[in-house]
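Structure tokens please, single chain.
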Amino acid sequence: MSYALEWKPSARSELRSIDVSVRRRILATVDQLAAEPRPTGSVSLTGSPGWRRIRVGGHRVVYEVRDDVLVVLALRVGPRGSVYQHLTD
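Here you go.
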């Protein structure tokens, strides 16, 4: 069973601002989430059911798993220190 991958518009914008080589690694990692949305190394975020994060070098991808519709939605992409700010925006 494969999940569809979707990007929040602000996450796409954040991704475009990242260096091309890092962006490729992030995209490859997110592509793998379609087959396994909860891979080893992903962490559930406290206080946000269904939200997880995965590490890609010094960057993090915060995403939501929607099991009812088989969708993985990328919410935020950015450096470790700032990606968690304003998650509810």
